[in-house]
Amino acid sequence: MKRLYLIRNAHAGWDEPGSSDFEREISEEGKKSLQTIGSYLLLRGIIPDLILSSCTLRAQETADGLADILQCEGSRYYLEELYLTPSERIREIIAVQDREIERLFVVAHTPPLHELANSIMDEHISKFPHLGVVAIDFDIEEWSEVEEKKGKLDFFIYPKQFEYFMPHQIRAHLEMQA
Question: pTM of this prediction?
Answer without folding.
Answer: 0.90
